[in-house]
Amino acid sequence: MESNTRRLVVVSNRLPAALALEDGRWQVRAGAGGLVSALAPVLRDRGGMWIGWSGTSDPEVDAAGLLADFSSEAGYDLYTVPLTADEVAGYYFGFSNEIIWPLFHDLQTRCRFDPDYWRMYLDVNFKFAEVVARKTTPDDYVWIHDYHLMHQALFLKSMGVKRRTGFFLHIPFPPPDIFMKLPWRWKLIQALTEFDLVGFQTLQDRRNFTGCLHRLMPEARVSGRGAVVSVDMGSRTLRVGAFPISIDFNQFADMARRREVADRAFGIKEALRHRKIILGVDRLDYTKGIPERIRSIKTLLRRYPDLKGQVNFVQIAVPSREEVDEYRELRTEIEQLVGRVNGEFSFPGWVPVHYHYRSFPPDELAAYYLAADTALVTPLRDGMNLVAKEYCACNVDEDGALILSEFAGAAAQLQKNAYLVNPYDLEGVAKALHRVFHWDKEERRRHMSRLRDQIRRNNIYWWVDSFLQAGIAKNLGDFPAADAMTYTRG
Questions:
Q1: Are 251 and 455 in contact (CB under 8 A)?
Q2: Model confidence, pTM
Q3: Catalytic residue check, 170
Q4: pLDDT at position 475
Q5: Of 13, 71, 409, 484, which sits with the fewest C-beta atoms within 10 Å of its C-beta?
Q6: Domains and CATH numbers, the chain
Q7: Which entry of 145, 151, 170, 447 is annotated as an active-site residue?
C-alpha cells in the first residue's frame, strides 16, 4: 500500500464478529465464511477498520459496546451499521438472497423480483454509505465487499464525499443473457461503474461484466490486457480486474502439522477402519450441489460394486439460513437422500455415507482434510470455493486428490492438477472417483504437490496486494498480469 494511504477500510454486510443471543445473554462470536477467512489475517497484520452490520436488529442491544473487546483483540476498529428487522428482511433476505444470489449463480428460476426488495436495498445501501462517509477520511482506501453493497460508490458521490473506492464481488457475475433478466439491470451496472476499481474472481466473470456493459452502456470502451483492464466511460475511467481470492496457506498447513490434529485425523481413519475417505465440505446452500453429489455416490456404488465396503463418503454441511424455507427443504432433501443411499448399500460393519450437519472448529475441519484421500468439491456454480484450497493446504503428506467442479471459480486456477467434473453429470463424477481411487502414490503426489505450490504462491496476501496495487497504482504498468503475480508471505 502506498504511504499516502492512511488506512484500509473494509465494508461488508456483516462484521467479522456477530452478536448472538445465548441463554438470555448477548455473546460475541467470531464470524465464519470465505470473506472473514480471507480478510481477518490481512487486517490483523495491517490494522485498519471494518464497517458492517452486527447481526442483530434489536434496538435495545449496545452492539458497539459488546464488540469493543473483540475490536481491541483484533487490532482494528469495528463500526456497526444498525438495521431494523424490516431492513434485514427486504435488503438481505429479499433483494440480496432472493434475487442477486440465485441470478448470479445462473439459477434465475429461483428469483423473486419484488420491487419492494429493490427499494429496501437502496435504502440500506444509503445507510451504509452514511456510516462510511462519517467514519472515513479522504486519505483512506475504502474496499467494499460483495453483492449486498453494490451502490456504495454511487451514494458516496451523491453526498459529495470523495473517497478512493474498490469493489470486489465474491460470487460469480452472470453472462449478459442472464443478467438482462434483472429489472434494475441498468441502474445496477451504473452503480458498479462509479467505483474506481471493480474486481471479480475470474477472467470469465470480468468478461461477463464487460459484456453487460457493452449491452447496457454501448458508449463504454474497454482497453488493455492482462489481469486488469481500463473502461473509458467518457467522463471518467474505471479499472476492472480478475483477482482470484485465496487462503492463508501457511496457517492451514501449520495447523495440519500439529500433533493433536494429526492424532484426530488418525482417529477419523481408525473409526472408518482405514477405508478410503471421500470428503465433501460445504455451507448448506442450493448452489453447492450436495444432493447431486450424494446421487453421484449412489451411481459410484452401483457402477463399481468392487468399491462397496472400501470407501466412505463424509459430507460436512455447515448450517446456513435455517430460517428460510428453501434451506430447510434442502436439508430435508439431503437427509432423505443419505438415508436412501445408506439403506440401499449398507451392510453389517459398513455404512457408505456419513453426514454431519453442524459447524466444525478449524482444527477439527483440518483433521478431516488431513484424513481424506479425496476431496469432492462439486458446486453447481461458485465464485471461487476456498474449501478446495483449504484441503490442498492441509494435505501436507501430498497423497490426496482433488475432484473439482468446472463451474467453481477455483477451476480456472487449479484445472491442470485437479480432476475437473461436471457436477450435473452423475456418471462422470462417479467415473472420476473411481479413477482417482486407483491412482498410484506417485501420481497423487505429483498433482497434489503442484496444487499446493500454486496455492502457496497465490495466497491471501498475494490476493490483497494485487487488488490494492491495482486500486491505488497510478497506471496499469504499475502491476503485472495475473499469470506473472507470485507474491508470497512467509
A1: no
A2: 0.92
A3: yes
A4: 34
A5: 484
A6: 8-245+460-484 (3.40.50.2000), 250-457 (3.40.50.2000)
A7: 170
